UniProtKB/TrEMBL annotation:
<dbReference type="InterPro" id="IPR003774">
    <property type="entry name" value="AlgH-like"/>
</dbReference>
<protein>
    <recommendedName>
        <fullName>UPF0301 protein SAMN04515674_11334</fullName>
    </recommendedName>
</protein>
<comment type="similarity">
    <text>Belongs to the UPF0301 (AlgH) family.</text>
</comment>
<dbReference type="Pfam" id="PF02622">
    <property type="entry name" value="DUF179"/>
</dbReference>
Amino acid sequence: MKNQIIVKGCLLISEPFLKDPNFERSVVLICDHNEQGSFGLVLNHKMSLHLDDVLEENIYPDIPLFAGGPVQPNTLHFIHNRPDVIEGGTEILEGLYWGGKFEDVKKLLNNGVLTAQDIRCFIGYSGWDSGQLAGELKQDSWIVSKNSAEFIFNTPAENFWRSILREMGGDFKVLSNYPVDPSLN
């Protein structure tokens, strides 16, 4: 799996036996990648908290929070598929945006314009310094894939890692069935 290319919008899928507890069976969306490093959000580590739990204002729909990664766990990030109503977001790939005016997001959630199908919110993020992620790729810690905004928003978090490997087919489909601890087989 050498020579995998990291670009904004790609997904990093952890190999089945990655022992880092922050990234075990993780799928990370790369939101930004340049010569200084990479910034991403773990898509499938759902927390027991909701957006309303971390804000002073009330947010009426239950919007789940995800652990975006181990870096700066006191920060809030979001991705969405609604550039028509959220200003200031950065397009990651077609139909998928990162950030924007959060004050607008809160209002749009409370008036029902935005739903949990339109937005994902994250506490913290995943970050790599220049060259760090390339080193992890050489160690085969990650599988790089492309995907769509629809897949990201329509796949339940608890099935995400397995679903994306299955969708990739071939040897990746086989990887999706690897047990977390093969010694228990």
